[in-house]
Amino acid sequence: MKRTSSGLAHVMRPATLTVVLALAVVACGSSNSGVSTGRADSDSAGTSSPSTPDTAADATGSETTEIVVPSVTEAPPITEPSSTGPTTTLVPITLPVITTAPTTTAPPPSTTPGVPGGWVAVDSFPPEVVPPLDESNQTGVPSPALPTAPGQPLADGIYDVQAGATPWSPANPNVLDVSVHRYEACTVIPDSCISYGDPFAPDELGIEAASYDVSLPLTGQIGVGLTGYDCQAYDATGNGADLAALFTAFDASYSADIAPLLGGADNPVDVLSAAPAGGFTGENPDCSYGLLFKNGGAPPLLLQSTYNESFDSDGNSLGITPLSVTDEMHPETLQVVNGVATIYLYAGFFS
Question: For residues 193 and 181, is the Cβ–Cβ distance under 8 A?
Fold first, then answer.
């Protein structure tokens, strides 16, 4: 058999066999007058009508009848289902071009809370941050260990603090260099404590010699506690920016109204008591002999002396020098709570 383009199979056999084959095919025929093999997609697909028989004479003159075998409809080949599921037709689509803006990395937000500004009068400061002014030891708990490398933060606690080697300057008003020392139990460092012969109490503290230098930002990042005096102590809180403004005002007025009088015939206290200037006035003589400096809402600053004077071992004067801002507003203690530092300074009465 030979497959043609029409899909029909024609069988050519000698006449004597044609009848037999035709009878066999007719015997197997169906009601659709065709023989189907396999599976058809529809009743009409691939079906042809029978041809009209033709009559012809052979070479011997006898007439031969050709029996035409009905066309056999072949079903399309059976396609096994794909093991990977139904076939999916992919239709190409065009995606819009997305332009990505350059990525900008923002600095992390600051985790340091701001300290409110403006001087606020308070009744008193916690006793643990107020060093004794008489001949006695500080009391409380020892300070945490100091950092071991520059730039590391101080742990929460209370420390002794002193003016640093680099004095405050109006050219850089928002920085104060200080030297931080630990408080340690007098039972541990007895030579650093005042002793009257009695055993030290467990809470008596001395000051270690070892120090750690810190540059405090005089901004809203730190708190300030300041004690002033005008016949009585005045305590107030503020922030570093308030202290920087007070430092600046005091330094300018002192340089203009007191420094030019030092070493002269006129005593600055007498001059400014008689003619107040630059925020300086005379203190009430019933309270102390000195000057007061008043500026805005800050506590009044008491100047019991208008200069520094040093002496030799025999008590002879080695000369006088002007006051610095930290000579007048003396750093006392530094308290760190939740990573936020508060410096306490004293500008009151010394016995």
Answer: no
Same domain, 129 and 63: no
User: Is residue 79 in some structural domain?
Assistant: no
Distance CA 299, CA 243 (A): 11
Does a structural domain hold residue 245?
Answer: yes
Residues 236 and 124 in one domain: yes
Give Dmax (Cα) for the chain.
171
Q: What is the dihedral of CA 23, 27, 33, 34, to 10 degrees?
A: -90
Residue 296 located in a structural domain: yes
Q: Which two tokens stand for residue 66?
A: 């050709």
Same domain? For 148 and 266 the reply is: yes
| Total domains present in the chain | 2
Neighbours of 210 (CB within 10 A): 10
Are residues 300 and 198 part of one domain? Answer: yes
Q: How far apart are CA 291 and CA 282, in angstroms?
A: 5
In this prediction, residues 214-223 reach a mean pLDDT of 97
- Within 10 angstroms of residue 103's Cβ, the number of other Cβ atoms is 5
Q: Which range of residues forms the domain containing residue 31? A: 15-74
* Amino acid present at 347: A
- What whole-number distance in Å separates Cα of residue 220 and Cα of residue 240? 6
- Using CA atoms, how far apart are residues 12 and 138, in angstroms rounded to an integer? 130
- Does the residue 210 lie in any domain? yes
Q: pLDDT, tens digit, for every residue of 223-239?
A: 999 999 999 999 999 99
Give residue 152's region: left, alpha or beta (phi > 0; psi -120 to 50).
beta
Residue 44 contacts by C-beta under 8 Å, 6 or more apart in sequence? Answer: none
* pLDDT higher than threshold 50 for residue 36: no
- DSSP code at position 128: G
Length of the chain equals 351
Q: Give 296's DSSP letter.
A: T
Amino acid 113: pLDDT: 61
β 120-122/138-139 pair status: unpaired
Say how far apart CA 286 and CA 99 lie, in whole Å.
Answer: 80
Contact indicator for 186, 196 with CB cutoff of 8 Å: no
Token pair recorded at residue 75:
């079903």
pLDDT tens across 241-289, in order? 999 999 999 999 999 999 999 988 899 999 999 999 999 999 888 888 8
